[in-house]
Structures are given as structure tokens and as C-alpha cells.
Amino acid sequence: MNVLHVASEVAPFSKTGGLGDVLAALPRALAQQGASRVTVVSARYGSVDPQRHGLAKRLRKLTVNVGGQHFEVGLFEGRLPGPGPQVTVYLVDHPLFSDRPGVYGPPSNPGEGYPDNALRFALLSQAAISLARELSPRPDVIHAHDWQAGLAVYYAQQAEWETPPATVFTVHNLMFQGLFSLGEVQSLGVRPELLTPDGIEFYGQASLIKAGLQLADRLTTVSPRYAQEICTPEFGYRLDGVMRARSGRLSGILNGVDYDRWSPWIDGALPARFGKPPAELEALSEEAFAADLSGKARCKAELQRELSLPVRPKTPLLVMISRLTEQKGIDLLIEWLDAELQNRGEFQFALLGQGEPAFEQRLRMLAERYPTRLALRLSFDEGLAHRLEAGGDFFLMPSRFEPCGLNQIYSMRYGTIPIVRAVGGLYDTVVDFDARSRSGTGFTFLPFTVAAVTNAVRRALSAYHSDESSFLALQKRAMRADFGWATSARAYLNVYKQAQSGK
Ligand code: ADP
């Protein structure tokens, strides 16, 4: 199986969120699970330094035709770092990418988007297909990700091939749809017949995510639950009708996590190491496990010191690392925090994140009012993210919707018990705690209300205080949960086969 991925991000070259991480890991996992060749095509943004990444510039340029306009693009070639079989990365080089400081928009306000984003990502999509037609052997499958690569599916189907590749399209977040004017999208070479509601028209505009959703042989999204949810009006962002119509071709496959970076026994960002690989943990007696967690206790004390919170081993410490947006339920979090802090709830809370200025402002005011119980860091800090995962007792994620979510998975590996709203990937990865049957890996709630968060946190704190042995067992179950990439990569290989056989 020879697979070519098209995506607007691939870490470590570029990353603004989970998409970049998936493109860093999934291609390698596919190669490890037996794909004969895996290639990634993305863009060389101004922020990518070819020298630092050891990228080689291909001598011959590629001529790319976007709606009759011809672009000469360069290609940087490199490899995804990491052990195992090699994955080749091609970064398309053109001033439309390299002359900008940001990936999607100006760094001061990325959400705004560059005005020519339709053309930029059409160019990336068409360049990927032009390159695919030159490669030998040709790819069997073109796997396109999110709206930026929606047109790659269309262009692949328009191109001439001896044997046309199958196409797979993955939705990482249905909220971002790539909406542009019909005229602009027609100028990218899209046939007018396609610019209808049955095609890619969307309430008077053209939707590039809809191109991927309507045209690809198979669709996937990043968790089984999110695959069901996006077929409903509540989560479908007005595309639920399209999703329902194509639900027979849609699979939900959980993102894996990179345990080489997120395991507390090898994590260089921590003041003390603890934990063990799942198979070794299983064999530990309760005493040996509790002794091992003394490393976690040290991480907690150091974290409290770092955040200028009182160093109290027995006060539960709730943590959160998040973009501060409505998607992540920050409005609900603030309402709940405000009420609990006023009620003198017995816990400390630490939050690392950045996002909407109104949320930052309200959080800042709370942190000023309750400095001994709320620590706030409005920055992007990878090291602190690791120390929060290690030093916290609980990790809170009250998301409105969550396609997959990574932090709840990291936190389990660090024995930091997730308290999550049971939506999307949170539903699929966290099992609600049950004291009697000694089962579960966290605490879940469903209504998007302060009462529901309050109740879930109270249950969590009561488990923390009431029965040490039961809480230790909960931590051990969470630390043993395994969400590596191998299983997910095998599921993708299956989807590729289904796409090829037209099922
Ligand atoms: P999303 O991709 O929707 O933002 P995820 O939970 O899937 O949410 O992944 C977010 C990733 O970004 C995680 O690796 C998380 O640790 C990291 N992250 C988010 N905000 C920050 C921050 N302020 N500092 C450091 N890391 C962050």
C-alpha cells in the first residue's frame, strides 16, 4: 500500500494544533504497520528553516495548473524524524507560503486568515496531485486532511491517471470549513456543475471541506463518537445532512499519542520521574505502586512552588491546559470556578492556556482575587504543560465538543485523573469511575451546566479523600490505558483497502 498524505501542517516543520501532531505520527505508524511507501506533502511556510530541518531543495521545479493559472513551485525534500521505516516529506515552496510569517493568518490574529487562503491551499492541493503523478511508483491512495486539502480530492479525481488512486478524507475539526465565494472557487478550476447544494455550495458560498466530504471514496474522523456526533444538528455545523448521507462511508478512528514524548518515566521536563510501561505496572503490588508515586508527589510539590501556590500535599490540585475558546468550554469553566472559589471549595486550580481576550481577562480577575487557590499562566509553554500533567491530581476538560482531544490521554499516563464532558474523543477514551466495581479511569458528565461540572468534581474529590486504596487503583488503571498509534494505523490501512475496493 502506497499512501500520499496532503495536509497544511506536519510537525516538526509546522504545527498550530493537533493536525500537525497527527501528520508527524500517523505516516510513520502506517509504514511500521506495513504500508510499502508513505509520503507527506505540505507547504514550506516562512517559519520553516530548511537548513535546520536538513531539507534538500529539488533542482527541478514543478509546474502546477490552478484553474488555468500556472505556478512554478519548488520542492524541499526531507524525512519525518524518528526511528523505523522512512517517511518522505515534500514541502511545496512558493512565495504564497514562504513570504508569510503565519500558517493560516497573521500571527497577531491567526483566526482572521489571509485573504488569498483559497488560492494558497488550492495550490498546495494541486501541487500534491501533480507531484503524485510524477512519483514512481504512483500512490494507491491519496489521503487528504481538513478543508485545506479538500480540493486535493477533487483535483485527484480530475487528473489523468493510468490507474486512478483511491481517495480518503479526514475531518479533524468540522467547525473549520474553508468557506469562500463561489466565483473565487470557480477560478480555482472547480467545474460550475459542482457549485450547487448537492456539490460543494454551502448557503451561498463554496465550502472546501465539503469538497472532501462529498467526493472522497472514504471519510474518517478522529474518534468513533465524533463520527456519530457530526451526523447530528448539535455537532454537525450545518453539515450534518451531508454527513448522514455519507455515513456509510465514514469511520471514526482515534488519534494515537506519542508516548516517546509523553511518559512520566522518561520525561525530561519533570523534576522527578515516576511510572512504568503498562505491562510492568500491572505486576506492581499496591505498596510498590504507592512508593513509585512518591515521584509524582515531588512533581506536585515542585509545581505548587513554581506556581506560587501553597505547598500542600493533601490539597487536591486540578489542572488544565487548553486553548481558551468556546470549543473548550472556557465560559462554563469560568462560571464554575467563580462559584466554587466563592464557596471556598477545598482545592487548588492551575490553568495554562491562551486564547480569546475576553476569557483571558475574566480569568485574570479571578486569579487576582484568589491568588492562593488559582494559578494562571496565559502563555504557550511546552515544559510547563508536562509539569502540569505530572504534578496535578486531576485534569479538567469541559469541552463543548472534542473531536479527539489529547490532554486527557496524556494525563491518564501521568496518573492525573481526567474529569471530562463525555463528548467526542473524551467519551471514547475516559471510562467513568465506579467505586463498587473498581472500574473506570476518570470522571465524566454530560449536561453542559455548572451543576454537572460541580457534581463531577465533587465525586472526584470525594474519591480522592475517602479511600486511598481505591484511588490508587484508579490511578493505576488510568496509567495502564494504552492509546498508541499502532491500532489506529491498522484501522486506517483497512479504510484504504475499503476505499480501493469502492466499498
Ligand atoms: P486542540 O488540538 O483542540 O487544541 P488537544 O487536546 O487535542 O486540543 O491538543 C492540544 C495540544 O496542545 C496538547 O498537546 C496540549 O498540551 C497543547 N497545548 C495547548 N495549549 C497549550 C499551552 N498554552 N502551552 C503548552 N501546550 C499547549
Features:
19 strands, 503 residues, alpha/beta, 2 domains, globular, Rossmann fold, single chain, 6-stranded parallel beta sheet, 18% strand, binds adenosine-5'-diphosphate, 10-stranded mixed beta sheet, 38% helix
- If you compute it from the alpha carbons, what radius of gyration comes out, rounded to the nearest whole angstrom? 23 Å
CATH topology type of the largest domain: Rossmann fold
- Each distinct ligand: adenosine-5'-diphosphate
The pLDDT mean sits at: 96
Largest sheet report:
10 strands, mixed
Query: What fraction of residues sit in β-strands?
Result: 15-25%
Secondary structure: helix percent: 25-40%
Number of helices: 19
Tell me the count of domains: 2
Short note summarizing the structure:
The protein is α/β, with parallel strands linked by helices and 503 residues long. It has 19 helices and 19 strands. Helix 11 packs across helix 14.
Can you offer a commentary on this structure?
With 503 residues, this protein is an alpha/beta fold. It folds into 2 domains: 271 residues, Rossmann fold (3-Layer(aba) Sandwich), CATH 3.40.50; 205 residues, Rossmann fold. 38% of the residues lie in helices and 18% in strands. The strands form 3 sheets. Strands 1, 2, 3, 4, 5, 6, 7, 8, 12 and 13 form a 10-stranded mixed beta sheet that branches. Strands 16-15-14-17-18-19 form a 6-stranded parallel beta sheet, sandwiched between helices. Strand 14, helix 12 and strand 15 form a beta-alpha-beta unit.
